[in-house]
Amino acid sequence: MRETIRQITPATPDGGALGFVNRRWIRNANLSSQMDYARDVCDIVKGFMIEKVEAVHNLEEICQVEEVDFLQFGPADFSMNSGFDKSVHPDEVKEVEKYVIETALRYGKRIRVEIRNAADAAYYYELGVRDFALGTDLRILKDFYKNEGDQLKEIIMG
Can you count the helices (H) and strands (E) in the chain? Predict the structure, then answer.
């Protein structure tokens, strides 16, 4: 974790390894100087996905890294890394998710969860979660087309 943070932190006298990213948007637009860029990158929110069994086992250590601003549990990747499909072991995955949430909050870290709709937030809100990612474009479109497609099929098929 610390090495990852070092690699994304600009190489300044304060540390870091990342050089000046001389991309077109910086070079041609004169949007920021090197030092402004370094300050901006240092100030970004650093969030990390907890998706591997090893990350769950080392969660308390991860939470003690000062530069970690927030965490998010990845149930699908965690399940796959554990060797099973999350739909086969939903209770186990939910238990690990709850452990990640409670541990992160205990260490003062923000935790974000992805929810499919607003109603899903109630459970997490009671656990202390205050940061949500509401849907994704693919899920929103999938749900829309499923619902509308079923209605259209009903009209056509009778």
Answer: 9, 4
d(CA 122, CA 108): 21
CA 34 to chain centre: 28
Smallest Cα–Cα separation from 69: which of 96, 40, 31, 107? Answer: 107
155 vs 145: CA distance, rounded Å: 15
pLDDT digits (tens, 9 = 90+) for 59-74: 999 999 999 999 999 9
The pLDDT assigned to 29 comes to 58
* Domain 46-157: CATH architecture, name and number where available: Alpha-Beta Barrel (3.20)
pLDDT tens across 3-36, in order? 888 888 888 888 888 777 666 555 555 567 778 8
The domains of the chain are located at 1-44, 46-157
8-state DSSP, 119: G
- Mean pLDDT across the chain, nearest whole number? 90
Count of beta carbons in the 10 Å neighbourhood of residue 23: 10
